[in-house]
Amino acid sequence: MAVLLTNGFYILFPIFIIYLCTTYPILDKIGMVIICYGVGLVLGNINILPHNILASQNTLCEVSVAISLPLLLFSLDLRQWLHLAGKTILSMVLATISVTVASCIGFLFINGLVKESWKLVGMAVGVYTGGTPNLASIKTALQVDPTIFITFHTYDIVITLFCILFFITVAQNICNRFLPRFKILETTGIEIGEPENKKLKNAEPENADILHSEGIDSYKGILRFKILLKLAGALVLSALIVGAALGISRLFPKDYATSMTILMITSLGIGCSFIPAIRNIEKTFQLGMYIIMIFCLVVSSMSNFSLLTNLNYPILLYVGFTVFGSLTLHGLLCMIFKIDTDTFIITSASAICSPPFVPVVASALKNKAVILSGLTTGIIGYAVGNYLGITIAYIVKSLT
Prior knowledge:
This protein is about 70% helix and about 5% strand. Strands 1-2 form a two-stranded antiparallel ribbon. The protein is mostly helical.
């Protein structure tokens, strides 16, 4: 019963947060996702959750991410991705190089201070090029000590939260001073007998009306019966996509199942965006963001802050150095290769924070056009994370 009530709280609390942010603008400035993340951190560390909640939390995390992805993709315009694909892939490659270099340099400082520290390199490369599924897979592959794994994962959650805060607050303003501004392909209209007139325009926050709104005002009207009816259909379609993806993933080896499932969910979601009747359903993006808030609330409540009262400084410093060192190196490489600010931020968020946070960061950037870029590079990261993490770990082991 306690587990059922907790799951009910996870599902209903984000609705309450949406209402509060609609009513009190100061809360909207903090951000709905950040509030959910903060409440989850408190909830998971005051010893009120049922002791047998872990399995339910894992299931809810997996389901929420899977169901939300198609909803977030239904309304996207693939033209933006086709325009941005080249520099997005380049930025992802630069991010991967940065993570690998930073994790290896960090190893030089902790070698000998942490038992089998070469395994930390593998976990860091895997999780910061892919995500939590890669972290769990590499932990099993390298037979990482459970205590070391839990410590690493807890520090990762805390430091990643600071990284997300940076991305959604001051990152765009700071990076615009050093990197080119993001440019979007704006359709200005079609004249009879004339080709479609397109031009590139700087994507400033005040030009956000070019894109669909992701602000709190965009949730207004979502409870109207006509919209709810269509959203129910979109939710069913999203569930069918997840079911189909799970079925297809069984055709592949077990080690690739997670990557293939996410890849198929994204591919089918993109495919549906080409169907006008689906693409024009109102509020699908907002429904997807609501489900992402459930994910943020659940995953943050799984943290263990008791590890912060007895800090393992070598692991803490290693995680911090890898995250912020790779972010700094990635920024410098983007300056050299003239990658724009928003592409740098979204690919960094996708790599370091994992794809579920891509919509959150894109919303803060007021740039929906980069969502598909972030999700795509995140999926590629899921696919290569295990290979890269395990390979780099054994290379480091052999060299030391």
